[in-house]
Amino acid sequence: MSEQKNKQARGVTDVVLGLMRDDNAKFSPLAAFTGIILLVGTVLTVLRFTQGLGAVTNLTNTHPWGMWIGFDLMCGVALAAGGYTTSAACYLFGMKKYHSAVRPAILTAFLGYAMVVVSLLYDVGRPDRLVLAYPFIVQQGTTSLLFEVGLCVLLYLTVLFLEFTPIPLEWLGLRKARNIAVKLTLTLTIFGVVLSTLHQSSLGALFLIAPSKLHPLWYSPYLGVFFFVSSIAAGLSMVIFESMLSHKKLRHRMGKAYLEEHPPLILGYAKAASLVLFGYFMVKVVGVSAGDNWYLLLTPYGIWFLVELLGFVALPCFLFAVGSRNKDPGLIKFTAVLTIIGIVLNRLNISMIAFNWHLPLDERYIPSWMEITLSVYMVTCLILAFRFIATRMPVFDEHPDFKGQH
Amino acid sequence: MDNTIHTLQDFMLHTESNTYILMGIYLVCMIGFWIFLTQKDEDQD
Hints:
Strand content of chain A: under 5%
Number of strands of chain A: 0
Largest sheet of chain B: none
Oligomer: heterodimer
Distance between the termini of chain B: 55 Å
Largest sheet of chain A: none
CATH class of chain A: Mainly Alpha
Order of helices and strands of chain B: H
Radius of gyration of chain B: 18 Å
Structural class of chain B: mainly alpha
């Protein structure tokens, strides 16, 4: 009995020491820059919640959705798709060779969706009402796609949290709770894939209500399909990109299994992303054809559309295929970055650049430096949270007490 | 042949015809792309 108490006490001490530990706690220009971002971001946060949207944003009634929706939410949701793609590949399609990538992908997705919800708090205001799920209880608005997006994001964030819980539970040594959480994995994966399919496509479908505002080359009845298919490519690329960064900064935390499974994972994901991008390219062309918008391709907006389609969809598709064929990890990593830029560009085109395209330039929306800084602040917080968790909890390696059990 | 579009029916026929042709080309390209993507895997096997 006393031995068990001693063990528990040791566990608590380890956790407390683990929270305080910092492997790289030394001054560097990057750390100073991060500190400045956090400081300025905190000041701007206070300004936004005390003075209102007008104090920090360039939003108007013509442009009620700006940087925080176009970048933080739209791109955040797409780039967090690595969670459902990886867990579906591993648990639903039986590709167990990708198992070691599940935890980092789930963590990235969980933090990504948390950032999405926080950015919504910034954009919508009244965080007290959002926390209390006011819109879902008092004014459901079930005929709006926004309701579906909001509900799915709420549920999916909960699912991701539950999928993430085995990591902190193993770290805390709570075996019973951890075993219950692990047993829920398959159910949560199925639920996560269903919810992701729903809200990834609905985010695109939101713009179906504005055919006169969105440029015809980007507007299509298939917007929902575009968003869903592109989110799969974004998720796969994001897993490759995240593993690339983690290898540079967190290699000392990686277990043998993760390091061994990493090269085939990169090749497999590149092949899958190449196929998905091939399909995405074709459905985008079908979108142009269905609207008979070929004549617009030679206009300035058309050339910009072609830059997005050829430079950030067709080219990554080809490069992923070449990288996968030649087993070239360098090319695959470069292409993953290119794909991520392409998806971000697509979401910004739809929500900002090609939106209200007919208005003169002086009436167009350009985000203020404070909006951009707050977006950078949120991404910085996400990276810091990822680093904090990955350096302490069993994300890239197996916990010694739970080897081979997940 | 008169290609002027007068009605929604004309427009739909025009765009759907183009799209069906594109999809045919796509399916043929897909086979070629799949072979390109997996060729070296088969060589190794």
